[in-house]
Design goal:
2 domains; single chain; Alpha-Beta Plaits; 27% helix; 4-stranded antiparallel sheet; alpha+beta; 3-stranded mixed sheet; flat
């Protein structure tokens, strides 16, 4: 999340009944992240329960050229009890000319690409339904989506 130029990274740590060692592990992770990500606000907390969600798909979203699309994607998935387990974004600077103004280059590359892994606490998640939902979301939001199931075929 970015607010007024300050980037915040939040994470949830799943610990399998770590007991008192859990607090030490969270403190160590917080210190390591804060030390290596100077200039960022880092927040780490232990999960409410030790049952991590199961990752079931990887989604690549591209072509969004307006602010807030990642938040819209996360909200869309949250309403379906799906979490973003990981997300990596890449800004395409080639759209900007040497003067920093968009549109001075004539390539057709998207402004950014986001690659996310999707997870759920529900072991019986309907992967095909989620895939269809994401393609419908992408169509309405004028995005390109590539959905890759990570579950074993039955």
């Amino acid at each position: 999340m970015e607010v007024s130029g300050t980037v915040s990274i939040s994470s949830v740590v799943y610990l399998a009944d770590a007991g008192s060692e859990g607090a030490t592990a969270v403190a160590d992770l917080t210190w390591a992240l804060q030390t290596n990500l100077q200039g960022f606000l880092v927040s780490v907390r232990p999960a409410d329960h030790s049952n991590p969600p199961t990752v079931f798909a990887r989604v690549t979203v591209a072509g969004a050229d307006r602010m807030g699309i990642l938040s819209e994607l996360a909200d869309h998935l949250d309403t379906r009890d799906i979490q973003l387990a990981t997300m990596r974004t890449q800004t395409d600077a080639s759209r900007y000319g040497p003067d920093g103004i968009e549109g001075t280059d004539d390539d057709e590359d998207p402004l950014y690409t986001a690659v996310a892994t999707l997870a759920s606490h529900n072991a019986a998640v309907d992967v095909e339904w989620i895939e269809k939902e994401l393609y419908e979301f992408a169509d309405k939001a004028d995005l390109t989506v590539d959905f890759q199931s990570l579950t074993a075929e039955k």
